[in-house]
């Protein structure tokens, strides 16, 4: 399936990732229809020709939406798989990719099946199972199996924290206990795979988190060439196993253990925050490449053409926007959200530090 300009891209989810995806689709000449629930700002609506405001489980609304689009994609992994079943419109990536990434326990099992090393972990159903798991994982992070992002739905397990209190802190929901990994750096591979199996990946970057929220992505990443190649290979294996179409990201901990230099943290079956630097620092950004892939178009070159530091603008930091606008090295991407609560991603800034040589330079 190869779409022509004028075809309609359907995006499920109305957040900033959907907004930037829609903007990329518009640049390539596609129509955009966004489906999103009535909660939230739905900032992607501003970049769409058509919008549907309905809950994901509204089957008639989903069916009408799917009938209006030529291909359907999603901007985040918490869209209920059942809502997309039987829509009759091509879904890229397939809904099976959603299922692989929605539950942290099944995600760990899937990544292991793909050959990726993961942290020791245990299924937690109640305080008794957490007590038992703490015997082998005394220093860990308790995470809700479903939902939760940017540090939400998780809590640190320490000897002075009772198991019942830890479970209460995450809402007494099914959980996973993961051993805390001693790492030297965090990195990620953002990869795009086309319908014909062709894949291209972006340079791994250094990711810095604060309070569970990505703070910045920058270059150079302290990842040796062979380790970076292995991270790419492992991510490619995930994409191939899923017969994936679109942008996929896998986050890794980098360790100083020569026997286990990489530990996979999690996968994201979508465009990813750690790939935002590509909008200004690569020949083809991740959002355009996602649209190219799901439309059946040739993938764009992922070569990095600049050293970039991507900084997330969180909460009230949006008030500092004039300072960034005055910086000639800053490329500002603002999401249009109405309110700025603590830790909320209001936008990001790509700081261009220097241009770099790359194969195929023609100027």
Word description of this protein:
This protein is α+β, with helices and mostly antiparallel strands and 363 residues long. It folds into three domains: 8-91, 3-Layer(aba) Sandwich (Rossmann fold), CATH 3.40.50.20; 120-179, ATP-grasp fold, A domain (Dna Ligase, domain 1), CATH 3.30.1490; 185-355, 2-Layer Sandwich (D-amino Acid Aminotransferase, Chain A, domain 1), CATH 3.30.470.20. Helices cover 25% and strands 28% of the residues. It has eleven helices and 17 strands. It has helices at residues 16-27, 59-68, 81-84, 95-101, 104-113, 127-133, 163-169, 225-241, 278-281, 286-294, 321-325, and strands at residues 8-12, 31-36, 50-53, 71-74, 121-124, 140-144, 154-157, 175-179, 185-193, 199-201, 205-210, 213-218, 246-254, 262-268, 306-314, 330-334, 345-355. Strands 9, 10, 11, 12, 13, 14, 15, 16 and 17 form a nine-stranded antiparallel beta sheet that branches. Strands 3-2-1-4 form a four-stranded parallel beta sheet, with helices on both faces. Strands 5-8-6-7 form a four-stranded antiparallel beta sheet, covered by helices on one side. Helix 1 packs across helix 10. The two termini are 34 Å apart.
């Amino acid at each position: 399936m190869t779409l022509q300009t004028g075809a309609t891209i359907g995006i499920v989810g109305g957040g900033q990732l959907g907004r930037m995806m829609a903007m990329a689709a518009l640049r390539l000449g596609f129509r955009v229809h966004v489906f999103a629930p009535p909660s939230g700002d739905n900032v992607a609506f501003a970049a769409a020709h058509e919008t549907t405001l309905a809950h994901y489980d509204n089957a008639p609304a989903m069916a009408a939406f799917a009938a209006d689009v030529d291909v359907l994609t999603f901007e985040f992994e918490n869209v209920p798989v059942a809502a997309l079943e039987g829509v009759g419109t091509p879904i890229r990536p397939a809904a099976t990719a959603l299922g692989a990434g929605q539950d942290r326990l099944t995600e760990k099992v899937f990544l292991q099946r793909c050959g990726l090393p993961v942290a020791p972990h245990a299924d937690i159903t109640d305080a008794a199972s957490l007590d038992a798991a703490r015997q082998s994982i005394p220093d860990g992070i308790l995470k809700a199996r479903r939902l939760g992002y940017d540090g939400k739905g998780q809590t640190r397990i320490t000897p002075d924290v009772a198991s019942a209190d830890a479970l209460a802190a995450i809402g007494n929901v099914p959980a996973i206990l993961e051993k805390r990994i001693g790492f030297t750096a965090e990195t990620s591979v953002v990869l795009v795979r086309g319908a014909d199996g062709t894949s291209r990946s972006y340079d791994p970057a250094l990711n810095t988190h604060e309070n569970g929220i990505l703070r910045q992505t920058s270059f150079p990443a302290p990842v040796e060439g062979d380790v970076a190649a292995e991270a790419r290979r492992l991510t490619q294996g995930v994409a191939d196993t899923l017969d994936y179409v679109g942008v996929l990201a896998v986050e890794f901990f980098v360790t100083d253990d020569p026997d286990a230099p990489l530990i996979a943290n999690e996968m994201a079956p979508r465009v990813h925050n750690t790939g935002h630097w590509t909008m200004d620092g690569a020949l083809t950004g991740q959002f355009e490449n996602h649209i190219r892939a799901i439309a059946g178009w040739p993938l764009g070159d992922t070569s990095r053409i600049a050293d970039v530091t991507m900084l997330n603008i969180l909460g009230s930091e949006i008030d500092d926007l004039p300072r960034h606008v005055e910086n000639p090295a800053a490329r500002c991407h603002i999401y249009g959200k109405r309110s700025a609560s603590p830790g909320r991603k209001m936008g990001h800034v790509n700081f261009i530090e220097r241009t770099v040589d790359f194969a195929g330079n023609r100027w």
